[in-house]
Amino acid sequence: MTGAEPGNGTAVVTGASSGIGAATARRLAADGWDVVVGARRLDRLREVAEVIGARALPLDVTDTASVEAFCAEVPYCRLLVNNAGGALGRDPIERFDEDGWRWMYEANVLGVARMTRALLPALEAGGDGHVVVVGSIAGFDPYAGGAGYNAAKHGARAFTRVLRQELLGRPIRVTEIDPGFVETEFSLVRFGGDEGRASAVYEGMTPLTADDVADAIAWAVSRPSHVNVDELVLCARDQYLAQRVHRREPDPDAGR
Ligand code: NAP
To answer: Which residues pair with 79 in a beta bridge?
Structure first.
C-alpha cells in the first residue's frame, strides 16, 4: 500500500446515516475530502452519500466481521471519524438493563477500537493520518440515570487518551470532540422512539446542531499537521456540562 491518494485524502465517517455523522460527512465533502460513510440503515446512508458524492458501505461497528469487510474496501485513509454510537435508557443503576449497557459498550467503546485497529495501517501509510473520536461531556461529567452511557463514554475517553500516547512519534493525530446537547436522533434512540421524552430534553433551551459539531470537527482536522487538538468540549450557551441547563419559561403571550 502506498500513501498516494487524490485531493484532500480519504475520510471515513462512521454512523453517517443521521445527526452528527451525516453533517460531518457533508462538511468534509464540501472541504474537499473523498468521503466514505458507514452505518446500518443503508437506505438513509445512501441518501446522505448521494447528495455529496460519497461512497456508502454497510457498517455495524458492534460486529467485527462487518468492520473488517468495511475497512477492506478502504485501501487509503487519511481521516477516521469515529462517530457511530449513542445511548440507551436513563434508568437508575438499581434497574439497569444489561442488554442496553452491553450495546452502549459495544458501539461507543469496542466499535471505536475495532474501527481504529482496522484502519491504523492505512492511516499511517499515508504519512499524515488523523483519528477523531466523538465522545461526550457524559465522558467526564457523569449524571444520575446516565451510568451506562457515562461508563461507555468514559471508556471512549480512556481509549482516546491511550491511543494518543501510543501513537506519539508516529504520523497520526488523535482528537476527541466532546459535545453537550445536540438535537439529532440521539434522544429519540435513547428513549426508544418516545418523541415526547426526546423533545423534552431540549425544551426551553437552544441546543447545538449537528452542523455545529461538524464545524468543530472540520476545524480540528484542518489544523497544520504538527498541531494536535487533543480535546474540544462544545456546549450550547444554555448548558454548563452535563448537569446544568438554563431553560427559559414558556412565553405566556405565545399563541395569543
Ligand atoms: P444519531 O442521530 O442517533 O446518530 C447516531 C448514528 O450512529 C446513526 O447514523 C446510526 O446509524 C449510527 N450507529 C448507531 N449504532 C451503530 C452501529 N452499531 N454501527 C454503525 N453505526 C451505528 O445521534 P448523534 O447525536 O448524531 O450521535 C453521534 C455521536 O455523537 C454518538 O457517538 C453520540 O454518543 C455522540 N454524542 C451525541 C450527543 C447528542 O446530544 N446528540 C452529545 C454528545 C455526544 P444506523 O442506526 O443507521 O446504524
So the answer is: 11, 130
> What pTM did the predictor assign?
0.96
Distance 15 CA to ligand 1 centre (A): 6
Query: What does the alpha-carbon distance between residue 23 and residue 30 come to, in Å, rounded to a whole number?
Result: 11
User: What is the distance between the alpha carbons of residues 84 and 185, in angstroms, rounded to a whole number?
Assistant: 12
Q: Is 240 a catalytic residue?
A: no
* Choice from 24, 141, 160, 184 to test ligand 1 binding pocket (greatest atom count within 8 A of CB): 184
In the predicted structure, residue 6 carries a pLDDT above the cut 60 = no
Ranges of each domain in the chain: 12-239
For atom 6 of ligand 1, the residue with the nearest CA is 15
CATH entry 3.40.50.720 includes domain 12-239: yes
For the segment 192-231, what is each residue's pLDDT rounded down to a tens digit? 999 999 999 999 999 999 999 999 999 999 999 999 999 9
